[in-house]
Amino acid sequence: MSKFKPGVYTGVASGNGYDSKPSKIKVAVTLSEDRIEKVEILSHGEIKGVGYGLKTSPVETLPGEIVKHQSLGVPPVIGAEKTSKGIIKACTKAIEKSGANTKPLMKKVPREAHADEERFVDFLILGGGAGGLAAGVQARQVGGDVLIVEAAGVSGGSAARSGGKLVAPGTKWQEAIGIYDSPDMLFDYMMGQSKGKADPKKIRYFCDHAYENLLWLEKCGWKCFSTEPIHESIVPWRVYNSEGGSYMSAGQGGHITSAMHEEYERLGGEIIFNCSLKELIFEDGRVKGAICEYAGGGKLTVRANNVLLTTGGFAANREMLEGLYPCMKGYFTDVPKTNVGTGITAGTAIGAKEYVSPGVQVNYMSLTPALIGINEEAGLIVNAEGRRVVNEWSYQYVVGDALMRTQSNNGWYISCGNELYDTVNRAFANGPVPGFPDVFADSIEELAEKMHVDYATLKETIDRYNELSDKGVDEDFGKPAKFMFPIKGPRYAAFYYTPCITVTFGGLVTDLMGRVLDKDNRPIPGLYSAGETASVGIYGTIYPGCGTSIGSAMIWGRLAAKLVTNQPID
Q: Pairing between strand 239-241 and 360-365?
């Protein structure tokens, strides 16, 4: 008896998407009487460098895997699970159209197991995100003996999922639109944002090398799409979008990481995927490699003269993050599930010094379809107690930091639908969204009850805000009068703000050259680190601007590669 009715069937399912836009993945599945003959992806809207665009990404690999194993139970690509599941779901719907029972096709296919193996290399890079790829390219440009080992099935890390923004002063793109900027000006801004808590030497190095870093990336194939401000209130404009990005975009970071990935491969570089760091090899007082483990089983031992840790931060490690920052309980993140602090743990296990930062890159925002909080909306924002704590017309991470400093697990955006922002006014007009904790009321007392905050506190906050709005002067926090929208009813809404975290601060302590230090502040021979694994000295408690994390990871990744391969350092 035949399994299938022969023919070509189409199916559509949701994928990952980008820039807050849902993606629809459309596939065509060709069936014979007893086989899945072909799977073709007809269209999609996935993230470059995550869902598609690489030899190992789901769009390129999963159709062949489904045919090879004759199964819909093939494992998702690690780090690109949403796209993988979307492809499998679309294929399932297509096959169901033939009248076939898809349940037998769902039996899970195990990940590929590997025999234990030992490798020898001069320069081992653990992590294939922005810092690791930059280091790999820099080393291969002079023929360096280098290997990248990546825990996910695709490169790019959290950088690939980002908005694809970079920051630099005194650039040709600024000059083209009549903007004057300089490393000194960026230095003053970043040190100011850190409230003096950042390392002046590291900030100085970043500011002096940020533009050169972008020109280097441009030679790898990256293209600057547009120039924009860090925030409307901050001048000069010094943020640069990758292709297709603008303002609070998401998903364009793959244009940065894909450019470096492709250049690394063009130069003959090798990446081993689906292989996680387990421990560093530390012998005779120096690091001599690492022991890693494949996702499907099998141990990879890499002996190396030099090791660079660029395994990312720990935003996907809920136990670790909420343990360090209890007020972040229930936070939202969209970083790869491999961002669990692996490099930090491995480094501290051999005596590396760790710094626990008092802050993280936190943005409080509504997760309803309106996504209030990412588009510079600046109405009344209160903390979990119903108190106003900040000039809302500030950079979103300034707002987030102010809320976090009050130990607030959440915040609220309060409105009467009378604002400059279409996002807020539409959400107000649409009313409650089923499944989301936003609340609507006909009085402040009712609003406080639904928000589970003290009525007297909330009323005092709103009364004071209205008083300042009527005066036209924000005596408490200095917000411009045009953003002081009165909260006077007759209907009220409070949009629930969840803390959203992408970048973690702190980690392994390094010197200016990116060498990991021990607890006595001495460099550990053979060990370097860059990116979120070692984002010490770059931040205070506020994330200063889009592109800082990616840019600093690349700068110190490249610096480590230069040291290892004896390239000139300026």
A: unpaired
Query: Which band of pLDDT confidence, cut at 50, 70 and 90, is reported for residue 375?
Result: confident
| Phi, psi dihedral angles at 285 (to 5 degrees) | 80, 10
Q: Please give the sequence-ordered ranges of beta strands (E in DSSP) within 54-168, or none if there are none.
A: 117-126, 146-149, 165-167
Q: Would you report the helix, strand and coil content of the chain in percent, each value rounded to 5?
A: 30, 25, 45
Nearest of 388, 342, 336 to residue 79 by alpha carbon: 336
**Residues 6 or more apart in contact with residue 447 via CB below 8 angstroms:** 414, 439, 441, 458, 492, 494
H or E stretch covering 465:
helix 455-471
Nearest-10 crossing angle of helices 58-69, 81-97: 50
Measured CA to CA, the distance from residue 412 to residue 543 in angstroms comes to: 21
The owner of tokens 């421990």 is: 279
Strand partners, 24: 14
CA distance linking residue 335 with residue 361, whole number of Å: 13
Number of H helices, E strands in the chain: 15, 22
Separation between Cα atoms, residue 398 and residue 406, nearest integer Å: 13
**CA separation, residue 241 to residues 124, 227, 244, 382 (Å):** 31, 6, 8, 31
Q: Helix (H, G, I), strand (E, B), or coil: what is residue 522?
A: coil
Looking up tokens 């409070």, which residue turns up? 494
| Cα separation, 481 vs 474, whole angstroms | 7
d(CA 538, CA 526): 23
When pLDDT is averaged across residues 228-247 and rounded to a whole number, the result is: 87
Identify any residues that bridge with 289 across adjacent strands, giving them in sequence order: 303
Whole-number Å distance between alpha carbons of 54 and 133:
14
Strands (DSSP E) contained in 273-347 are: 275-283, 286-294, 299-309
* Helix-helix angle 200-219:183-193, to 10 degrees: 130
Q: What is the separation, in whole angstroms, between the first and last Cα of the chain?
A: 72
Examine the pLDDT at 20 and tell me if it is beyond 60: no
Q: Which two tokens mark 444?
A: 């402040």
Per-residue pLDDT of 471-484, as tens digits, reads 999 999 999 999 99
SS3 270: strand
User: At 523, phi and psi to the nearest 5?
Assistant: -60, 135
pTM for this entry: 0.96
Euclidean distance between CA atoms 99 and 5, whole angstroms? 7
H or E element at residue 275: strand 275-283
Beta strands (DSSP E) in 410-542 are 411-415, 439-441, 492-504, 506-508, 515-517, 523-529, 534-535
The rounded distance, in Å, linking the Cα atoms of 396 and 497 is 12
DSSP class of residue 431? -
Task: Report the distance separating Cα 165 and Cα 550, nearest Å.
Answer: 8
pLDDT score for 21: 65
